[in-house]
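Q: What residues go here?
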């Protein structure tokens, strides 16, 4: 357990996540419009709740993933960095008679993430929202006060929240978060890469689109069935492929995203693309890796052939043939349902 992790586990860190895109869908048909397009249930989402979903091609491959938040007047979407503008155009072209408009708010808004053992209290102190209200939020529940929107997120097992705000509120909000005790952990690379945040999300088995998922990924390969796909809603783009795999194929896909836990003596962090071998046969590749501060070992995410995806299986990585173990459950403690 690293000193920085101990500091955050007992306190809080903060990270600028403004690079993520933010779209606003306004109008009475906003929820039903999205419901017909994405993989999860949006139409039955109550105000103040949220859902994780994927937008798919007709062939069942991912265009993007997104967090969708039901508001009083429509739906807000958080999308991967660099995709907001093109997705706004794509959605706009799909509007026919629906009473909905799509606005890319990425340039007019910013967002930060607060995470750690005291994250809920830090967010409360910084925003003025009662700590009890924040503590009762379930994943992707959100509450707004004085122009600041607080969202309970699930990027890691430590409690974590995002705060969305108008750009003009950035400096004052950051100052309030720091004054409340959060430690600055800004990235050395894009999307939080190179930070303890990135290490904790890998340790939690949390894939990121553009890193661990691509336009070639079928959501079932990435383990998104429970998180992103409703099996009871009506039609959406790509549904036929997903249903065919689930019902005719028994859910079998050629490869699975798994977490790989290094043996204790492994110190080198593998690069993305490092091949994975099972009994000398190449069966997959790493997508992201870091030193897991809670596990105290190097951890990685990667795709392996379904025959090599069983938990407890020993594999080797790269030319060094370092020894790793496939984890069907992430190498971390289970998250707390409601942060204190």
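A:
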């Amino acid at each position: 357990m690293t000193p920085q992790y101990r500091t955050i586990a007992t306190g809080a860190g903060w990270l600028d996540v403004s690079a993520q895109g933010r779209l606003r869908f306004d109008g009475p048909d906003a929820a039903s419009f999205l419901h017909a397009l994405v993989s999860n249930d949006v139409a039955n989402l109550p105000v103040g709740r949220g859902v994780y979903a994927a937008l798919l091609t007709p062939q069942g491959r991912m265009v993007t993933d997104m967090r969708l938040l039901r508001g009083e007047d429509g739906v807000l979407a958080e999308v991967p960095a660099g995709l907001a503008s093109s997705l706004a155009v794509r959605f706009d072209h799909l509007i026919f008679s629906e009473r909905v408009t799509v606005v890319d708010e990425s340039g007019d808004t910013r967002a930060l993430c607060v995470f750690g053992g005291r994250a809920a209290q830090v967010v409360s102190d910084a925003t003025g929202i009662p700590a009890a209200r924040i503590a009762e939020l379930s994943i992707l529940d959100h509450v707004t006060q004085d122009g600041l929107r607080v969202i309970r997120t699930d990027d890691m097992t430590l409690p974590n929240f995002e705060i969305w705000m108008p750009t003009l509120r950035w400096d004052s909000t950051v100052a309030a978060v720091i004054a409340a005790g959060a430690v600055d952990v800004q990235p050395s690379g894009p999307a939080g890469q190179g930070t303890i945040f990135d290490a904790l999300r890998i340790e939690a088995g949390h894939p990121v689109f553009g890193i661990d998922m691509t336009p070639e990924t079928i959501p079932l390969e990435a383990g998104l069935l429970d998180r992103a796909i409703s099996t009871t809603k009506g039609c959406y783009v790509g549904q036929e492929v997903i249903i065919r795999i689930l019902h005719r194929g028994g859910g079998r896909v050629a490869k699975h995203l798994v977490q790989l836990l290094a043996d204790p003596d492994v110190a080198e962090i593998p690069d993305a693309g490092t091949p994975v071998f099972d009994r000398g046969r190449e069966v997959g590749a790493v997508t992201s890796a870091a030193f897991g501060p809670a596990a105290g070992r190097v951890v990685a995410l990667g795709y392996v052939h379904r025959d090599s995806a069983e938990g407890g299986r020993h594999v080797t990585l790269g030319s060094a043939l370092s020894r790793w173990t496939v984890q069907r459950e992430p190498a971390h403690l289970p998250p707390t349902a409601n942060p204190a």
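A: Context that may help when evaluating the design: Confidence is low (pLDDT under 50) at residues 332-340. The domain at 254-340 is CATH 2.40.30.110 (Elongation Factor Tu (Ef-tu); domain 3).
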